[in-house]
Known about the structure:
mainly alpha, 0% strand, elongated
Amino acid sequence: xxxxxxxxxxxxxxxxxxxxxxxxxxxxxxxxxxxxxxxxxxxxxxxxxxxxxxxxxxxxxxxxxxxxxxxxxxxxxxxxx
Length: 81
């Protein structure tokens, strides 16, 4: 993790079965649940939303249809899995 500033995040009312699943995934990777969730948050924040992609394309004067972007982003994300 980089040395940039961090902030604590507290999430309440997470269903027990969801926590158990996430804990099992963290265990499988040999890391704590906190580290696992931190990694997941970082990864989520790095991936632009469909709205962000569309807004960026409009700033650059793109003439492509938003459906084209949706298909392309889904394809890229599927290839990354």
